[in-house]
């Protein structure tokens, strides 16, 4: 499979052959779904937390005597039946959402998503991506000349580049990631994948270690 290569001015300067083992993998939607669900579960934050009756403050004293008042007997105001009391079966921080998924399955799903991006012309390759200093305006100018203009885009960098990261962070629908950290969930969260040619080499070295 061949892919166009652009420069930072948006001009087509050549074509490159994409590695078949990365960009020509048969898609299995069920596998991708399974991996993405596990990733979402592993990123889930345990925020909601309710208190049980033993954690609610107060209620150490019996509200009224057991008999003779004509009211129902009560042992503590911390009862779940009372306003301000404990909560029965409420969400707890102790709940574990993590799901384990084999490395081979994660890698396979990633290659499938990369293959779909390439097949649907959603992969944009650059000869290089460089800015002189951290400036959002420079990145916006580059993106405006490429097929991914005004669309959500994930930029896969061959290595950590603080200038590009700082330039991109204020642009909506555009994020950066290192090529070695690519994963199905992040790829599917953006329409386009933009990366310098060098990132292909990094992907190969990372996910096809001998």
Please outline what is shown here.
With 210 residues, the chain is of the alpha/beta class.
Cα-based radius of gyration, to the nearest Å:
27 Å
- The order of strands across the largest sheet is 2-1-3-6-4-5
Could you state the CATH homologous superfamily of the largest domain?
Ribosomal protein L4/L1
The stretches of 5 or more residues where confidence is low (pLDDT under 50) are: none
Task: Give an account of the 3D structure.
There is one protein chain. The chain has 210 residues and is of the alpha/beta class. It folds into two domains: 130 residues, Ribosomal Protein L4, Chain: A (3-Layer(aba) Sandwich), CATH 3.40.1370; 49 residues, no CATH class. It has a six-stranded mixed sheet with strand order 2-1-3-6-4-5, sandwiched between helices.
Features:
Ribosomal Protein L4, Chain: A; 7 helices; 210 residues; alpha/beta; 6 strands; 6-stranded mixed sheet
Write the layout of secondary structure elements.
Elements lengths: L1 E5 L5 E6 L2 H4 L5 H15 L59 H17 L3 E4 L9 H9 L8 E5 L4 H7 L5 E5 L5 H5 L3 E5 L1 H10 L3
Parallel strand pairs: 1-3, 3-6, 4-5, 4-6
Antiparallel strand pairs: 1-2
Helix pairs in contact: 4-5
């Amino acid at each position: 499979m061949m892919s166009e290569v652009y420069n930072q001015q948006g001009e087509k300067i050549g074509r490159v052959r994409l590695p078949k083992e990365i960009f020509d993998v048969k898609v299995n939607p069920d596998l991708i779904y399974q991996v993405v669900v596990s990733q979402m579960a592993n990123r889930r934050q345990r925020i909601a937390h309710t208190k049980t009756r033993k954690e609610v403050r107060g209620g150490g004293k019996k509200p009224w005597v057991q008999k003779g008042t004509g009211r129902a007997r009560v042992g503590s105001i911390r009862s779940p039946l009372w306003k301000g009391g404990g909560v029965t079966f409420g969400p707890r921080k102790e709940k574990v959402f993590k799901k384990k998924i084999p490395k081979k399955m994660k890698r396979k799903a990633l290659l499938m998503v990369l293959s779909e991006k390439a097949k649907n012309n959603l992969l944009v390759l650059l000869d290089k991506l460089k800015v002189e200093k951290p400036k959002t305006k420079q990145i916006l100018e580059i993106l405006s000349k490429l097929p991914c203009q005004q669309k959500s885009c994930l930029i896969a960098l061959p290595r950590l580049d603080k200038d590009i990261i700082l330039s991109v962070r204020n642009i909506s629908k555009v994020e950066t990631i290192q090529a070695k950290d690519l994963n199905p969930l992040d790829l599917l969260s953006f329409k386009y994948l933009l990366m310098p040619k060098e990132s292909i080499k990094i992907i190969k070295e990372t996910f096809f270690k001998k």
